[in-house]
Amino acid sequence: MSHICPSFDVSRRMGSSVSVDKAFRKQKHIRLSASRRTRKVSLRTVSGSSNDIRGNPVFHLAFPVNDLEEARDFYGKKLKLPEGRSSASWVDFNLYGHQIVCHVIPNYNAASSQNSVDGDPVPVPHFGLAMSEVQFQELAQRARKAGVPFCVEPHLRFVGEPGEQWTMFFKDPSGNALEFKAMTRPENLFARQ
């Protein structure tokens, strides 16, 4: 299977005669200069805490949506995720200290299948977060108040097992499925049964 990545055009930023190698060296220099000017880089999260991204990796996910204003309404207004940078074709959001980016693909509608997990019809593929129980309950309340329809209502699953967790699933307006969960014992997130 072949995966094709579009090439990027460095000529617009760095002059038409600049080689890709020189562009990467220049980019590295810019990044180093910025780090010298900034002692601490942080992302403000919905919970009010911050993540120092110099020592802690931040997850990044880019995914298609069919309409930026619908995405802004869903992620920004309904889920109350802070909006970051944007252009006419994409917008990023701070998902509890992690970066998600909505890219416009006109007429996109995510197709998903379902897999039964502890009796729940779990949409696949999906993405989301494992969070604290307080954050989970706050998000569930926010989603309900905003009228977000759940694929799987917030509830406790795997009761009495090492993987016991609160879970909920819903979809954005483009059909992208999201899961949010809270382990009753966070240390068991990666526990084997």
TrEMBL record:
Domain annotation VOC: ranges: 57-183
Domain of life per record: Eukaryota
CDD domains found in the cross-reference section: VOC_like
Record-linked PROSITE patterns: VOC
UniProt-listed InterPro entries: Glyas_Bleomycin-R_OHBP_Dase, Glyas_Fos-R_dOase_dom, VOC_core
Signal peptide limits: none
UniProt xrefs under PANTHER family: PTHR39434, VOC DOMAIN-CONTAINING PROTEIN
Name listed for the protein in its UniProt record: VOC domain-containing protein
Species, as recorded: Tetraselmis sp. GSL018
